[in-house]
TrEMBL record:
UniProt-listed SUPFAM superfamilies: ALDH-like (SSF53720)
InterPro entries on file: Acetald_propionald_DH-rel, Ald_DH/histidinol_DH, Ald_DH_C, Ald_DH_N, Aldehyde_DH_dom
Name used for this protein in its record: Aldehyde dehydrogenase EutE
Residue ranges annotated for the Aldehyde dehydrogenase domain, each copy included: 39-427
A Pfam cross-reference name: Aldedh
Phylogenetic lineage: Bacteria, Pseudomonadati, Planctomycetota, Planctomycetia, Pirellulales
Length: 479
């Protein structure tokens, strides 16, 4: 009796794959443009794409990234509108602007660098190599912008990525990824450099976290997903929570401070993790700052209105005896006019921010509320303001802001806060190069220490040493 050897080989391969002793056969993902229902298939496709990308030049990486930039900029209105319609949080103008900012200002291959050590014993070159496939979790607050920034950073470093987006922003995530991949494939013939799970679940996230072909994890989200990433057993870059405080001392330019607080705290209805969340003001300038806020266009709520807003906008979650206060979902990212209406006040839809005086016990002070209401707390002096700022930042070491013309006060707060981002005399987005110097990313890794991510964040060092040669200065070492 004769046997078809190909049938035998296929059966053996299938059995070995089922017991985990052979890698699954992967092919046939061309034309998917990064859209997958199965997380395992998405990772396998991203692995295939990584192998192809590894054969390409740095110049090819730049061409790939240029397509992502171009689409993010040229199609910002359509994609930003799509994100606004799907998530229903934030502001349309800022959804559009964020895509342009990430397209223009996210660092790419120009951030890559090599280090060289030359001496008596030869030459050592340190280069930055990719990890491979990176698993990503992205938030509903900035669904496609976060993917855009991550894709530019990660592909510049030579990696591919698999994204498990927040379910609330999955449609715009998939459409953006589809457009990116199609443009890249049409130009360079590589598909699935960015893969996205079309119907993301906790199970798909868990599979990505523990898949053997995922070399690294990058998450942008709340404490639960951050803990899951850190427990994955893989290298993790974690963008964690923040509750950025503002200190205003007696030397500050109050009108400038007011404009900055409104610009940062009102941006995209306070959805940014770096956005101003609570303000601690030296008593001697407190009343004048409140007037400056009104001059700058913010609307002040009185104490009874704040009480009404607090009662509906802050809620408790958890089991009895283990509850904690959080922002009520229906108010996150809503317009200032919506918050004012809940407080019993009618204001213009053009108002960017509502604010008012509270004590530090008001839940809006400790809670990362992500809505355009900011509480202002009186403090005896700048030292008290800084100490309260440190306490209510909760040790996240994320972002802090001061308005002052006293260099010693700035220095004192910087040392005490020890935050990843520290802004002086400007709105919080200036820390990401928006009205300030620097570059942008929406993955700001505070718990794991990488800070504002760049292509180098997603690379590993490789050292190549040549002993006793190619040192052309001086005399070589003997022996």
């Amino acid at each position: 009796m004769q046997f078809d050897e190909s049938i035998i080989r296929n059966v053996v391969a299938q059995v070995l794959a089922e017991v985990g002793k052979a890698p699954p056969v992967t092919s046939g993902f061309k034309g998917r443009y990064g859209i997958f229902d199965c997380a395992d298939e998405a990772v396998r496709a991203a692995r295939e794409a990584f192998e192809k990308l590894s054969e390409r030049t740095i110049e090819d990486r730049k061409r790939i990234i240029d397509h992502i930039r171009r689409i993010s900029i040229d199609q910002k209105v359509e994609l930003g509108t799509m994100e606004m319609n799907e998530t229903k949080i934030g502001k349309l103008a800022h959804k559009i602007e964020k895509l342009e900012l990430l397209g223009r200002k996210t660092p790419g291959v120009e951030f890559l660098r090599s280090e060289v050590y030359s001496g008596d014993h030869g030459l050592a070159v340190i280069e930055h190599a990719p990890f491979g496939v990176i698993g990503c979790i992205t938030p509903v607050t900035h669904s496609l912008p976060t993917i855009t920034g991550n894709a530019v950073n990660m592909i510049a470093g030579g990696n591919t990525l698999v994204v498990n987006p927040h379910p609330g922003g999955k449609k715009v995530a998939a459409e953006g990824v589809r457009r990116f991949n199609k443009a890249i494939y049409d130009d360079l013939g590589i598909d699935n450099l960015i893969c996205v799970i079309a119907e993301p679940t906790l199970e798909s996230a868990d599979l990505i976290f523990h898949h053997r072909d995922v070399a690294m994890i990058c998450v942008t989200g709340g404490p639960a997903v951050a803990r899951a990433a850190l427990n994955s057993g893989k290298k993790a870059v974690v963008a964690g929570p923040g509750n950025p405080p503002v200190v205003v001392d007696e030397t500050a330019d109050l009108d400038r401070a007011a404009r900055s607080i409104i610009q940062g705290g009102g941006y995209d209805n306070n959805l940014l993790c770096i956005a101003e969340k609570e303000v601690f003001v030296v008593n001697s300038v407190f009343d004048e700052l409140m007037r400056a806020m009104e001059r700058a266009g913010a609307v002040r709520l009185n104490s009874s209105e704040i009480d009404r807003l607090t009662s509906v906008a802050i809620t408790e979650v958890g089991e009895p005896g283990k509850t904690k206060q959080v922002a009520a979902k229906e108010f996150i990212g809503q317009d200032a006019a919506v918050l004012a209406r809940a407080a019993g006040k009618n204001i213009s839809s053009d108002v960017e921010l509502v604010f008012g005086e509270t004590d530090e016990q008001n839940p809006f002070v400790p809670v990362e509320q992500m809505m355009p209401f900011i509480p202002f707390v009186r403090c005896h002096d700048v030292d008290e303001a800084i100490q309260k700022a440190k306490y209510y930042e909760h040790g996240f070491r994320h972002t802090a802001i001061i308005h002052s013309n006293n260099v010693r006060n700035m220095s004192k707060m910087g040392r005490v806060m020890d935050t990843t981002l520290f802004v002086k005399n400007g709105p919080s987005p200036a820390a990401l190069g928006v009205g300030g110097e620097g570059y942008i990313s929406f993955s700001i890794a505070t718990p794991t220490g990488e800070g504002v991510t760049t292509p180098l964040t997603f690379t590993r060092e490789r050292r190549c040493s040549l002993i006793d040669d190619l040192c052309i200065l001086g005399h070589p070492a003997k022996g």
